[in-house]
Design brief:
Blueprint lengths: L1 H26 L6 H29 L3 H25 L6 H29 L2 E2 L2 H24 L10 H25 L25 H35 L5 H11 L1 H12 L3 H26 L13 H18 L3 E2 L1 H19 L2
Antiparallel strand pairs: 1-2
Length: about 375
């Protein structure tokens, strides 16, 4: 019995992605009963946990900041596919889905993942220490992308409503791609040391001293299983999305809550991976994951929906309302003050989490 349990503990990250993919294939495009929704939800949770495991294996092999970049980009590419698919299926009622999901991702990453990571690390070590240069560059890019893509459409006058004209949308998409490309080059080539974990004394940690890195074969296997797990996460999330939408409607909640729930589901792998890194005193890795996911979410989603808008019916609403713009402005201001010292106490983590709580409360009760 003990041998079987040990075998299961070793093999579950390899079995669960295949099982989740099988359930996805069997349930794709079908209406789900309550029992099937429960089964899909269990497989979804298992796929999230296995994705985190394989992402950590890859990160250990390639090192930072490449490891966090792999997970952030992989999740976001599949998230974009989910958003475009839901928009294609939803017609006019999904015209603001991209905006709602992207803004939810920004708030969850910049306040939820960042806040939790700082809080966990600061509670363990009194002060969470990170590299202000790299984190500031990432946060500044996120703020710029959010402002160009989500705030400007509210104030433009070429088209009615909080929307871009075709020329403005093309500009926003190109700006998002260029800025994201510049950041990736900065993070991985020009100034890689700015995004590496640091000790309490500010010394850069350029190697993981916990264990030897896995072999190339093991890392490639994990890369394939990570792709399968993430496809399963997003596909199963789409499968339960009608249940989420009907539940939201039955509860009398705003339609934008659907975007919040989708973002929460899709960002679970990054959240768990970031918390694990923070518990190992690698808060810089946590911040790389959080801010990198926010940046990838905007930098890849806006160009994708810009292209998809060619054949999608109905308007593409991107501009935020006044309440959300206030929350975004507070996030930028608080995040700037958090990043500048390169050190954070539990207070800073609590402030970020309070902003996320305010966003969720106002999403449910605007």
């Amino acid at each position: 019995m003990n041998h079987q349990l040990r075998l299961l503990a070793v093999r579950w990250p390899f079995v669960v992605p295949a099982l989740a993919a099988l359930v996805l294939a069997l349930t794709w495009g079908r209406s789900l009963s309550a029992g099937m929704v429960a089964l899909v939800s269990c497989c979804l949770a298992g796929a999230v946990l296995s994705a985190v495991h394989h992402a950590e294996v890859i990160a250990h092999r390639v090192g930072e900041p490449f490891g966090s970049l792999v997970l952030a980009v992989a999740v976001t590419i599949i998230e974009v596919a989910l958003i475009v698919t839901l928009m294609a299926d939803g017609g006019e009622k999904s015209s603001s889905l991209a905006r709602d999901t992207v803004f939810a991702a920004v708030m969850i990453t910049c306040n939820g993942i960042v806040g939790l990571s700082l809080l966990v690390c600061a509670l363990r070590r009194r002060v969470a220490v990170f590299n202000a240069e790299g984190t500031g560059a990432a946060f500044g890019t996120v703020a710029t992308l959010a402002g160009l893509s989500l705030v400007l459409p509210t104030f433009t006058t070429s088209t009615p409503g909080p929307r871009f004209s075709s020329a403005q949308l093309v500009f926003a998409a190109l700006a998002a791609l260029i800025l994201y490309g510049l950041f990736v080059a900065t993070q991985t080539v020009r100034h890689r040391d700015y995004f590496l974990p640091v000790t309490a004394e500010g010394v850069v940690i350029d190697a993981d001293d916990h264990a030897d890195p896995p072999s190339a074969k093991v890392a490639l296997t994990s890369l394939g299983l990570l792709a399968v797990a993430l496809l399963a996460v997003v596909g199963l999330a789409k499968g339960v999305s009608p249940t989420i939408e009907s539940g939201v409607a039955a509860a009398g909640l705003p339609a934008s809550v659907v975007g919040v729930v989708i973002a929460l589901l899709v960002l679970l792998p990054e959240t768990i991976a970031a918390l694990r890194a923070a518990r190992r005193d690698r808060v810089q890795t946590s911040l790389n994951l959080g801010l990198g996911s926010a940046m990838a979410s905007i930098g890849l989603t806006i160009p994708a929906v810009a292209v998809a808008s060619i054949w999608l019916e109905g308007p593409l609403v991107l501009g935020l309302g006044a309440t959300h713009m206030v929350l975004l402005a507070l996030t930028v201001a608080v995040g700037t003050l958090t990043v500048i010292p390169g050190r954070a106490t539990p207070l800073q983590g609590g402030v970020h989490l309070s902003l996320l709580a305010a966003y969720i409360v106002l999403a449910v009760s605007p």
